[in-house]
Amino acid sequence: MTVTGELIAFMSLALVAVIGGVLLLNLTKVVHMIVALVFTFVSIAGIYVMLSAEFVATVQILIYSGAITIIMLFGIMLTRHNDTSEPEEGWIRKTLLFIGVLGFAVVMYIGVYDLDLASGPNTLHENNTEQIGVALYSKYVIPFEITSVILLVALIGSIVLAKKDDEKEADKE
After folding, report:
1. What's the CA gap between 13 and 42, in Å, rounded?
2. What is the pLDDT of residues 69-128, one digit of tens each?
3. With the C-alpha atoms ordered 130, 132, 47, 68, is the resulting torsion angle positive or negative?
4. Which of 23, 42, 51, 79 could cross-link with 36 by S-S, CB 3.0 to 4.6 Å?
5. Closest CA to 51 of 14, 80, 76, 106
6. Residues 6 or more apart from 61 whose CB is under 8 A from it?
7. Where are the transmembrane segments (predicted)?
8. Distance (Å, rounded) from C-alpha 91 to C-alpha 85?
9. Which domains occur in the chain, in start order?
C-alpha cells in the first residue's frame, strides 16, 4: 500500500472527525461540545469533497456546521435548566473509553485496508449538482415540499411555545 496525498488527507480528516466525536462525548461545557461537533461536521464535509461530492459538502457546511449548530446554541442558551454538576468520572471509565475507541479504529483500519473496490467506469462525480437538482425537483418534488411545510410548522410551534413561556414568566412577576 503506497502512501499518497489522498490517503494522508483522508486519514487526517477521519482523525479530526473521530477526535471531535470523542470530545463531544467527554467535554463538560455545552459550548465546548458544540465546537467539537463543528469540527466533526467540517471534517466530514472534507471527506465529501474527496469523494467528488462538492454539493453535498457545501450543504454539510451550510446546514450542519452553520444552521444546526446555531440553532442548538440558541436552544441551549434560551432554555432554563438547573445546572447541576455531575460527579467526575474516574480513570477507569476514561481508560475503557480509550480502549474502545482504539479497538474501533483498529477494526476500521483492517476493514478498509482489506477492502477491494472494483475500479470500473464511474461517472457519478460528473455534474453531480445537476443530477441532484434534476432528481430533487422532478422525482422528489412532493417530499421536498412536504419537508419544507413540516419545518415551517415546527418553527411556528417553537415560537408559540416560547411565547407561552414568556407569558407565564410575566404573570409570575
Report:
1. 9
2. 777 777 777 665 555 665 667 888 889 988 998 998 888 888 877 766 666 556 666 777
3. positive
4. 23
5. 14
6. 41, 42, 45
7. 6-27, 34-51, 57-79, 91-112, 140-162
8. 18
9. 1-80 (1.20.120.1200)
Among residues 5, 44, 10, the alpha carbon closest in space to that of 113 is found at 10
The set of long-range contacts for 41-46, using a CB threshold of 8 Å and a minimum separation of 24, is: 41/65, 41/69, 42/16, 43/13, 43/14, 43/16, 43/17, 44/13, 44/17, 46/9, 46/13
Amino acid at 19: I
User: Which set of grid coordinates corresponds to residue 12?
Assistant: 487526517
C-alpha cell at 25: 462525548
Q: What angle do CA 117, 119, 131 make, to 5 degrees?
A: 100
What's the one-letter identity of residue 133?
G
Q: pTM here?
A: 0.58
pLDDT digits (tens, 9 = 90+) for 12-71: 999 999 999 999 888 888 788 888 988 999 999 999 999 888 888 988 888 887 888 777
C-alpha cell at 38: 463543528
What letter represents residue 139's amino acid?
A: K
Q: Which residues contact 136 (CB under 8 A, 6 or more apart)?
A: 144
